[in-house]
Structure formats: C-alpha cells, structure tokens
UniProtKB/TrEMBL annotation:
Residues 268-333 form the HTH luxR-type domain. This is Transcriptional regulator, TrmB. Residues 79-113 form a coiled coil. Gene3D superfamilies: Winged helix-like DNA-binding domain superfamily/Winged helix DNA-binding domain. One of its GO terms (molecular function) is DNA binding. It comes from Catenulispora acidiphila (strain DSM 44928 / JCM 14897 / NBRC 102108 / NRRL B-24433 / ID139908). CDD domains: LuxR_C_like (cd06170). It comes from the Bacteria. Keywords: Coiled coil. GO terms for biological process: regulation of DNA-templated transcription.
Length: 335
C-alpha cells in the first residue's frame, strides 16, 4: 500500500507542515521515482520552487537520498514522517513553553522593580475588590482601541460577571478590538462559558488554552494591569505604564494567543497521538513531578477531573500504574 493511502495533506497540515511542502510530499509518495521536473509539473510550480521545497523537506528529515538511484530524493515512510513532524511540533511547543516561563520571570522582576520605584506615576498599586473594580471601570471607559486579556480563572461569582458585562459590551459597541483568552476549563463552567459566548457574539475574539501563565489586562497596548502576587488576590494589582514592561507583557500575550484554540474549536485532538492539548499538558506536568493538586490548579479544573483524565490515559495506555503509564507514554512519543 503506498504511503499516500495512509496520510493526506490535511494530516500533514495539522502537524504544522506548510501547504506547499505537504502537497509536494504527497506527490512524491504517490509517484515514487518522480524527478524535480515532473514534480514541478504536478504542482504547477517552477523547478526552482520545487528544489527549494525539496530542500525544506530534507531539512525536516521528510525525504532521503535514494539508495537505488543516486541523486534522487524519495519520501520517508508515512510512519517516519508522522513521527518526525510530531517530534518537531513537540520540540517547538516545549521551546515556546520555555520562552513563556522565561518571559514571565523577566516580567515579574521588571514589575517588582517598577513597583519599588513608582514615584514617576508609571506604576499604581490598587488593593481591595471595590477599588480594583472601580479602576477597571474607569479604564474601560478610557480605552480607545484595544483590550487584550489573559483570564486564568473559573468559578467567578455571578455578580462579578453581571457587573463586567455592560462594560465589555460598551467597549465592543465603541469599536474597541477585544481579545480574551480563557482557560479550556471554562467549558465545564456554564456561567463563564455563556459569558464568553455572549462576548464572542458581540464581536470579541475569544480563545482558550489548557493553561495560562498569569492574569493580565492590557489597554490600548500602553497600559497593563497585573496581579502583585498571582497566588494571592489580597495583595491587589499593579497598574503599569512603563513602556518596557508593557512591551514584555504584550509579547507574552501574543506568544500564548498564537497557540490558543478558537472558542468554537474547543480542546483540539492531535491526529497523530489522539491526545487533546489538556491531556498532553497534564501528562507533561505530572512527568515533571507536579502533584495532582498543582496540576488541577494550573488547568483550572477540580482534583477529581485531573484524576479522571489520568485514569482514562492509563486505560488507553493499558498501564497498571502511573510509572508504567509514563514509560509507555514516552515510548509512544506522547512526552
């Protein structure tokens, strides 16, 4: 059976391969022994473009030099291609996560330094739920172009959602571009999910992610609100206008936003592994030594949910213990 019968362009695109490269790989798998000129004709591109694409496939280890015909490039097997693309995607995700953690640490240090030297008015410390709400209300009416926010929360009080809705709707009606990024766990939180859908219907761009680095609110790309201590609300928030800090926070937001799923897509399933983003991240956290409790907190779900997901993963791996599950997950390329 030819490799092309078991893998298609959509699968390759889902694993991060550019469309032209995916089409070229399929064409090579469908016509073993085809040369550059023939492949260029099939794809309707020039020979020079085909050569550039072949070099790109070689860089990704998706083609190899034929042992039978020296100088001819042939595609690797479908199994090898899927594994190579999955490995590359996992390495990119790991590198992105490392950058996010590094950015968060740098931002925390920068915000702390700004807070210690806030006489220039670029940093404002606000404490107390009522004071924070009043400041957010003020900011909402002053925002002119954009609101970008990370919202790693679930289980918000109904009154809080009720108070926030008129402000958000007013922003959207005034033409303010709103991007809101929630935890994937809001799908199990009916009031918050309904709120997110209402905002999307009103014109907001809403996405979800299994985990988020911290709570963040950026107005007009020049003013940010961050918690003094993400783990303790009682310490209040900092309103920051320092350009360098705001630029770093924007970079953090864009990094997380780029890989988040649209609200209507949900928790996407990786076609190569059958894992959702939440399952993959949970496996990674537990493999790194996180407890069920800390994993549940980062994912914004209950301890019972974490244990239910883990039990399902163990069943799929046919593992009798978490240790065995970790070994089998690694062997399958899930970690």
């Amino acid at each position: 059976m030819p490799a092309s019968a078991r893998i298609d362009v959509a699968t390759l695109l889902g694993l991060g391969l550019e469309e032209r490269l995916a089409q070229l790989w399929i064409a090579m798998a469908s016509a073993p022994g085809a040369g550059v000129e023939e492949l260029a004709d099939v794809l309707g591109i020039s020979e020079s473009q085909a050569r550039v694409a072949l070099d790109a496939l070689a860089d990704r280890a998706l083609v190899r030099v034929s042992q039978q015909t020296p100088g001819l490039l042939v595609p690797v097997t479908a199994e090898a291609a899927l594994r190579q693309l999955l490995r590359r995607q996992e390495e990119e995700l790991a590198e992105q996560q490392r950058r996010i953690e590094e950015q968060r640490d740098q931002i925390t240090k920068a915000v702390s330094a700004s807070a210690r030297d806030s006489d220039d008015g670029r940093v404002e410390h606000i404490v107390g739920a009522d004071a924070i709400h009043a400041r957010f209300e003020q900011l909402a009416y002053r925002t002119e172009t954009s609101i970008d926010s990370l919202l790693p929360v679930t289980g918000l009080p109904a009154q809080m959602l009720s108070d926030a809705k008129p402000l958000d709707v007013d922003l959207l009606q005034r033409g303010v571009a709103m991007r809101s990024l929630y935890l994937e766990a809001i799908r199990n939180d009916a009031p918050l999910m309904a709120y997110a859908r209402d905002m999307q219907a009103a014109g907001a761009d809403v996405r979800t992610s299994p985990t988020l680095p911290q709570r963040l609110f950026i107005s007009d790309r020049c003013l940010a609100v961050v918690p003094v201590d993400p783990s303790t609300r009682a310490h209040g928030v900092l309103l920051v206008r320092t350009p360098g800090v705001v630029a770093s926070l924007l970079e953090l937001f864009e990094t997380v936003w780029h890989n988040a799923a649209p609200l209507d897509v949900g928790n996407p399933i990786d076609t190569a592994t059958g894992l959702s983003d939440t399952e993959r991240i949970l496996l990674t956290m537990l493999a790194d030594g996180a407890t069920d409790e800390s994993a549940a907190k980062r994912l914004g779900v209950s301890l019972r949910t974490v244990r239910r997901i883990m039990a399902d993963l163990m069943r799929r791996l046919d593992a009798g213990s978490r240790f065995e599950a970790g070994i089998k997950a690694a062997r399958r390329g899930w970690l």
